Amino acid sequence: MERSVVALLGNWPAGRGPLYQRLADAVRRAVEDGLLHPGDRMPSERRLADALRVSRTTVVGAYDRLRSDGLLVSRRGSGTRIAATARPHRRVMDRRVPGGTATAVFQRLIDGPDQVISLTTTVEGAVPELEEVLRDLAAEDLTDLLADPGYHPCGLPELRTALAERMTRDGLPTVADEILVTTGAHQAIALVADLYLGSGGTVLVETPNWPGCLDVFRARGARLHMVPVDDEGADADAVAAALAAGSPRLLYVMPTYHNPTGVLMSAARRRRIAELAARHDVPVLEDNAYVRYEESAEPLRPLAGYAPPGAEVLSVGSLAKTVWAGLRIGWVRAPAEVVQRLARRKVLADIAGPVLDQALAARLVPRLEEITRARAPELARRLDHVEALLRDRLPRWRWRRPDGGGALWIELPGVDADTFAQVALRHGVEVVPGSVMSPGRAHDAHIRVPFTLPRERLDVLVHRLARAWAEIERDGPVAEQDGSGIEGGDPVAEQDGTGIEGGDPVVAQDGSGTLRVTV
User: Fold this and answer.
1) How far apart are alpha carbons 43 and 330 in whole angstroms?
2) Residue 81 β-bridge partners
3) Given this model, what pLDDT does residue 101 score?
4) Is 120 within a domain?
5) Whole-prediction pTM
6) DSSP letters of 127-176?
7) Average pLDDT over the chain, rounded to whole?
8) How many percent of the chain have pLDDT more than 90?
9) How far is CA 432 from CA 210, 214, 261, 453, in A?
10) Is 306 helix (H, G, I), strand (E, B) or coil?
11) Are residues 74 and 139 in the same domain?
12) For an engineered disulfide with 427, which of 305, 414, 468, 494 has Cβ 3.0 to 4.6 Å away?
């Protein structure tokens, strides 16, 4: 219960005033937004204090304030609940995905940037080639594009052709009719979920996994059957056992740089999983949205390229990680008749995608190999840099160097990642704990740490993580006055409105144009 409540509180330490007041304000906002409802039971003071990694007196102070304001009621034997008279400010209630874990991730995107370093995404600014292509497009094609009617439900023909040609070069023979252009990879996954799941069914998914994708399936009423990931990708024996034991409607895998582990599924593993799915007549959805960072790495064929004749494999891709997340271009490659069925669902969602964005993408797709190779050295340097920082500042943390992608999957020795996430938030870092990426308890000690941030930002990030870890390793919160008039409270963050404790490394110019960082 306490985990679900904590997820609704968001960045509750931000703001001014003592921690107990900030906590009370966060609970009040959750009630006003319709996230907590009249009659909902709240965690006990002790359990919420443990979950937030604060002293019990902080929660006692917050609950007392909320009881005096009439938002909470406490009765012996029934605990503390949201008062029956509490009402949201909005007519429409917030409809979260039942059992979903992506709430905090997406809320960060909605709230926008602040002083907190958020680890919810692995994206950065646009590649320089985008500006070049944008200028060329405006100079050469804009007049003709503006004369276009603008409705292409399956995608701009030029882009569909460019994507088909690229997949053919990658070892997967494809024609334009087998391509549906979507608003990012996320929409592609959502359309496939609508088509194959209907009102439920079982989906085989890797664990850990990206919570946004899991919630897409949960929102369709799907049951998730988790299969583990090893150093070659999804465990083929676990997939075989799951396929033999039931009749899943879909198998969802990330063979090319799995998120969050960064594992590249081997060619042998791709072939075996494709053959298993074909034997059991289960469609496969492969998500290939991530990229490599090693210049020498040779790309493997998509999993669909290893599938036997008659197998139904849908391949999803995106420009978000290779070009820019702001260019909302994704796609799905599937049999032509499946593309038509998906297109009918896309029309209901948005009628058609933006023409200018697709025209840009059509010019960029033939250059993706060039763009990827140009970015690889910098990504590799950032990975080397953050690994060196972590080994120096946090030597007890453990991880496997990823094959690609944009993040490290780190195990925290002997510490629950949900607990660490609350402490890290007070130090200015929003962590994605393993509990939201894996149902059950298998990865509760893990966090995902992107390395796509600029190097100077990585310095600040690791500094803040190290401060949070030092606090975790102490025996509980530091006892001091928390502003509530109660002794034994939590450390009070600097009153700068950010809720962030302590200072960051000093980042400055040294006169040569080079950034220097002093910790």
Assistant:
1) 41
2) 41, 73
3) 66
4) no
5) 0.86
6) PHHHHHHHHHHHHHTHHHHHTS----TT--HHHHHHHHHHHHHTT----G
7) 88
8) 73
9) 10, 15, 13, 16
10) helix
11) no
12) 468
Residue 73 has pLDDT above 80, yes or no: yes
Q: Residue 110 in contact with residue 59, Cβ under 8 Å?
A: no
Tokens of 304: 């669909």
Tens of pLDDT, residue by residue over 309-335, are: 989 999 999 999 999 999 999 999 999
- Any idea how long the chain is? 519
Out of 369, 402, 428, a domain closes at: 369
Does the pLDDT of residue 166 top 90, yes or no? yes
Q: Is the dihedral of CA 478, 480, 483, 485 positive or negative?
A: positive
Question: What's the pLDDT tens digit per position in 214-251?
Answer: 999 999 999 999 999 999 999 999 999 999 998 899 99
Which CATH number covers residue 346?
3.40.640.10
Residue 448 φ then ψ, to 5°? -105, 125
Mean pLDDT computed over 378-384: 95
DSSP state of 312: -
Asked whether residue 61 falls in the same domain as residue 147, the answer is no
Instruction: Supply the range of the domain harboring residue 220.
Output: 133-369
Q: What is the 3-state secondary structure (H, E, C) of 364-394?
A: HHHHHHHHHHHHHHHHHHHHHHHHHHHHHHC
